[in-house]
Write a structure and sequence with these properties.
Blueprint: H1 6-43, E1 49-50, E2 56-61, E3 73-82, E4 87-90, E5 97-100, H2 107-113, E6 121-126, E7 146-152, H3 158-173, E8 178-179, E9 185-190, E10 203-212, E11 217-227, H4 233-239, E12 247-252, E13 263-264, E14 271-273, E15 279-289
Antiparallel strand pairs: 1-2, 2-6, 3-4, 3-5, 3-7, 6-7, 8-9, 9-12, 10-11, 10-15, 12-15, 13-14
Amino acid sequence: MRKKLIFPAIALLGLLLLFNSCKKEYETIQSIDEAKIQAYIKQNNLTMTKDPSGFYYQVLSQGGGAPLLNKDSVFYSLAIKSLSGTSYYNTATYSTEGTYLGYLSPEAYRIALTGVNRGGKVRVILPSYLAYGKNGTATVPSNEIILSEITVSPSASMVDIDDKNINDFLTSKGLVAVKNPSRVYTIMNFVGTGDAISSTASTITVNYTGRLLNGTIFDQNNGLTSQLNLLIPGWQKTLVGLKQGTKIRFFVPSDLAYGATGSRNQTTGAYIVPPNAALDFDIEITGVTN
């Protein structure tokens, strides 16, 4: 009978040793991360607060707007890099990220922004075990400590942010555009003399190029034919009344384009149009059927 107990006892001992080994390794990663973070803070003479969960944060600017509450929408830009300065992510120029503060992820960002005002800025250092861990990602190495800076827009309205982004772009390029009641900005390059588009039920044929405000071409087509009401609202609100032969450039606020969801490649899942992106179109109307 006693011999039968030997193998289960050995197996149990092995499991305990394995468990303790894993636990010790996890604690070692924590201590290594902590030492690196402390060295970075000291080297850069930073004053940071440590959250009980293990991450550090610092308010770089309180901001001059209203305080952020969990129920509020928050629009922001995000920069993520390693402690050595390797950049892993930056919000695209003229693009804005946004959600409700209470939904912001990871939780460390939400905690760091609680009590900050609109227009504020925070720095967050995530130890690797709270970031991408030992697996990392395609771009972030294993066990990498992540430093993030979050800059909150002074505005609580994406409509106002889009308008500012479009105006900043126009100013930077020396362009003059007319703002329509729909909030689309237009530059008429050539007035056509053919049939006018009578309604959104009209079928149009166009040559066009679509760009993000940073200049990236996300779509172009010569000879696209479609019923107008199947296209984004910004086109519908701009093209009705224009005549065949017209050449126009116009700038569409994000809510009249692909909105907060953006547009993704159906195969890869990568963004074609980022969320909350205003768009820049050049269009030539080559055919109209009413």
